[in-house]
Amino acid sequence: MAAPASPVFDGDVVPRIVAVIPARGGSVSVPRKNIKILQGRPLIDWVIQAAEYSGIFDEVWVSTDDDEIHMIAKKCGAKVHRRSPHTATNTASTESALVDFVKAHPNYDVLCLVQATSPLITPLDFQKGWDAMRRAKADSLVTCVRAHRFLWSVDKRSGVARAVNYDPAKRPRRQDWDGELIENGAFYFTTKEVMEREECRLGGRVALHEMEEHTFAELDSPTDWQIVANMAMIHGFWPPGSVKPEGTDESPGSAEVTILGDSKLGLAAAAGLGMGVGLGVAGVAGLLRAP
After folding, report:
1. Is 229 helix (H, G, I), strand (E, B) or coil?
2. Which of 135, 149, 171, 197 is flagged as catalytic?
3. What is the sign, positive or negative, of the torsion defined by CA atoms of 201, 140, 145, 23?
4. What span, in angstroms and rounded, lies between the C-alpha atoms of 86 and 100?
5. Residue 209 near residue 143 (C-beta atoms within 8 A)
6. CA 224, CA 147: separation in Å to the nearest integer?
7. Has 201 been annotated as catalytic?
8. Under a CB-based contact definition with an 8 Å cutoff, are residues 82 and 24 in contact?
9. Mean pLDDT of 12-32
10. CB proximity list for 138: less than 8 A, separation 6 or greater
11. How far apart are CA 130 and CA 19, in angstroms?
12. For the chain, which terminus, N or C, has the lower number of CB atoms within 10 Å?
């Protein structure tokens, strides 16, 4: 039996949607990763700008324990929450950071967890994700990519391998197979009711937004960084008026970021036009915030 529709979508009240980007100072794989420069911009700027220009968020926050990240996040246009130290250790869960944030900032109807390590998110992804959640009247939403990969497992004791998601005797062609939907960890929507009840990013009636396959990217090594830097030139969101660098800038440090305009509707329209979507102002408004 399907879960009942979320009460967030009852009536004509427009829900208050808040984005939060966890960005602690420590990073085991890539030092200072959250503010490392990717194509001339701090890593967190990529998701901050995509969130701001989507037009769906009432507020965009960065949750951090680090002074430099605090400063850069504010320059990029985000509000800053100083997270508790116990939520910023190498062993702390992302959920602990979310609980810490909502206890300090309870004025929201829907929370959006945005991962700073997903710089290929575009404003259109946030718009389509919210639209999918709204249409499904869901309690939460997960982002995934579709991958045509054959999965295997190996029995630890016998060493015998077996196919997990297909029959080797009837190997499907790519065009005849829908593939697998794999969580890419880009962003999640969660209603306040689910967050308070389960203290988890996902729960209740779950909707799904399918993103492009290139968004399934890791940033855990210098090699990963170079690959994503190259993809960002083509697939990343560049705010209107920004200039793409001629070469790849991978040096650490901060960067000046120009915030273009403060109108949510104007930002959404600009994002739609920038991504080649002919929605127009009225169309964007209806898509984003219709109850």
Report:
1. helix
2. 171
3. negative
4. 10
5. yes
6. 19
7. no
8. no
9. 89
10. 5, 6, 132, 189, 204, 205, 206, 207
11. 12
12. N
Query: 99 exposed, middle or buried (CB, 10 Å; 0-12, 13-18, 19+)?
Result: middle
Three-state DSSP state, 186: strand
Per DSSP (E only), the strands in the chain are 17-22, 37-38, 41-42, 59-64, 79-82, 110-114, 140-147, 152-154, 161-163, 180-191, 206-211
Asked if residues 103 and 164 have their Cβ atoms less than 8 Å apart, the reply is no
Measured between alpha carbons, how far is 114 from 44 in angstroms, rounded to an integer?
10
Q: Are 65 and 25 in contact (CB under 8 A)?
A: yes
Distance between CA atoms of residues 76 and 64, nearest Å: 14
Q: Which tokens belong to 118?
A: 């997903």
Residue 16 is classified by DSSP as P
Q: How far apart are CA 19 and CA 185, in angstroms?
A: 15
* pLDDT at residue 249 in the model: 43
CB-based contact 69:45 (threshold 8 Å): no
The C-alpha atoms of residue 225 and residue 227 are separated, in whole angstroms, by 5
pLDDT value at 90 more than 80: yes
Note the pLDDT of residue 276: 35
Encode pLDDT of 170-211 as tens digits.
Answer: 988 888 888 889 999 999 999 999 999 999 999 999 999 999
